[in-house]
């Protein structure tokens, strides 16, 4: 189908601000529309990915619109925060504007991964009349429990990492070809860029800030059909099954082996994402009776042991399907903890858990898919050796897990703030340990994420860790391992003091979601990725990546990574963009106060006589009382990089019960 591409058009909001949009329009008259609404710059940031998606969807008969959020890319206004009231209110106006265009038939869908997956759900929650269906990839239903800031009441180091990335992203200028006022606007962006890491860190409990945008607050509010997708190598694995289980609107869940990318461009077994999306929108935007509502509630890739490494590579497993979710084929099996293993019946006794702070070195990058490579969880044997492990006997028959395992336990502790991290692993007869699932818990949050309390040393408490979703087939002869630790660096920022957690075994049990099916139904698995168009950008510098872990003379464990995303010239408008990022994580096995993170981003933009260069630096450290956050920005323009602005900020945030 012939399509017309409009590089830029303006959507004028009620208050006069203009948002920048790129359009792909079928030449067939009014059609349904698909919106993707992001802060990642349509002009260059997502342009390569957009070429692989919206071009295909437009040829399938959809008007496609890629809009920059206010204050980002080429859009006017000031950015304030992720998923803010401004962002969502603007989004409602964008949807209404799309529905009113003569190239749209009034029916609008939304698609997005991560940020776009989040705000698609959040806008559906607000029920704008023209929004009729969404495809949400790698998203969350609970912004406190399952995002990049906190997990189980523990601070994720990616709160600082992601805030540092957004800091760099938000300093980038609009394109002078589209904005005559680009320099004035750029200076305003540089002066007003929010200190997001510190802002998020101040909200340490599940308060109204996090409840805003958490669609689990009212499952009935979403009345539009939802196709929810993610991958097992991604950080966002809990939302699709939760949506399938709780929404009243038509909902389908798919979890493949993929990382934090759209499935067709995954480096881990790419799949036919396009057909799934088009089929979903054909049903709910075009009204075609194609059977989309009759697909299984939950389709997933049941993984098996595959000798894990940090490098990208194919997974091992098979596709399965459950017609309903929760499934009648999944039942709870309880294994009671005993020293070193499990039993059918509870036992009296205790097990002490205390770990060096560098446990977690094989945990991989929190959100795999953001780096170029070297980001996946590897062989867990090294981390297991530093943890307290409970091993099953070698399995006499295969064991299949589908859902969220739970660890229920009674404990005492010697510090007022402490963590416990649970990992489930599949251990091969050769001793290779593959992580199946994990989850940390700030033990101060044992009874509430809204009103945590300091722990009283020696007092008995009860707690539960609901591990992240999994789908895993353990083969006969393999061992199921539960590994417990009091730290998990660098994914989790450590507690202020090394702690000893004592488990009181009489009330400690692992509750497993065991799947048993006599006859499998047809899985309706996504096929291999179909051919898709690729942006014919001129590659001026090739991407590259490296990671190195070292130990200093003082015993600190240091992880350094570098990702050069290359330098390219866009074929449509000749904008040349280059970027790279360096990260460093440092921890001492015996002193959590040594925990330290730093990162530096670099961006360059050029076209003919116009050049801009931006560098940002961010650091985070701590002591027992506070977190210390620092950031620096330098912006320059011209071939000689004449300084436009250099500015530094520092924030001290009390660590409370973190």
TrEMBL record:
One of its GO terms (molecular function) is dipeptidyl-peptidase activity. SUPFAM superfamilies: alpha/beta-Hydrolases, Galactose-binding domain-like. It comes from the Bacteria. Keywords: Hydrolase. Pfam families: Peptidase_S15, PepX_C. Residues 278-534 form the Xaa-Pro dipeptidyl-peptidase C-terminal domain. This is Xaa-Pro dipeptidyl-peptidase C-terminal domain-containing protein. It comes from Ruegeria faecimaris.
